[in-house]
């Protein structure tokens, strides 16, 4: 698909992977609709793209009416909608026994219901344009990690939502893709590494290559290529595909053997560090978080 002239909506578009992907798509001639809660960051990204080619809408993916209004504004501004990227997501850190239940719920609300709301709001326009819907899942959908149960569950749910949606809208000409990335080297991942020693230790103990961190630029290139090709699957880096194909092995007793001995030490330390911080997110995200225990998606 030629991106030039296409109208592309991106949730979580104010910063991180969402913003950088939007800029890359704009450089190829796309017109962007950026959705986020942070109006100041939205305006900054929109200004970098150019106000004539970008519509910035403050909207909450947890609220269907808010997303429907954003989709309507997109069509009113540009006359159509060709692509929607459900990129908004968060994570929370800490064990199931100690995590804040409100934080756990918030992860599911944004990462699963937020994807549903984005799809429900944009599908009428995508059916009209025979467009493309990209769900941003994660390597975490394939490979579980202790202390990230909410994130793991939500990203697996997002992946299977994409699988079901793909079957539902194929006959209407809409293509559905699902993106899976490893850890991305955004400032937010860097913040988590600074905040939580146990998080660094967890990454170090994960089997190679699950412990690897990938550049923002590589992720953006994968997303842009996925949009251009209307890909069924987007992987970044490429080895993530192999993990997905072998997920049963990764989550088997044999696959878990290398990490299991370290969990009795790692998990209590993570819980203690989160409790000491009084938050499980970087300080920069507290202002936009509805719960003090919410964390921004490590892929954003």
Helix content range? 40-55%
Give the overall shape: globular
What is the CATH class name? Answer: Alpha Beta
Order of helices and strands: EHEHEHEEHEHEEHHEHEHHHHE
| Separate helix tally | 12
- Any low-confidence stretches, pLDDT <50, length ≥5? 290-299
CATH architecture annotation name: 3-Layer(aba) Sandwich
Largest β-sheet summary: 7 strands, parallel
CATH fold group? Rossmann fold
What is the fold's blueprint, element by element?
Blueprint: E1 7-11, H1 16-27, E2 31-36, H2 39-49, E3 54-58, H3 64-78, E4 83-86, E5 90-91, H4 101-129, E6 132-136, H5 149-169, E7 175-181, E8 183-184, H6 187-195, H7 197-205, E9 213-214, H8 216-229, E10 233-236, H9 240-245, H10 247-250, H11 253-256, H12 263-277, E11 295-296
Parallel strand pairs: 1-2, 1-4, 2-3, 4-6, 6-7, 7-10, 8-9
Antiparallel strand pairs: 5-11
Helix pairs in contact: 1-8, 3-4, 4-5, 6-7, 7-12
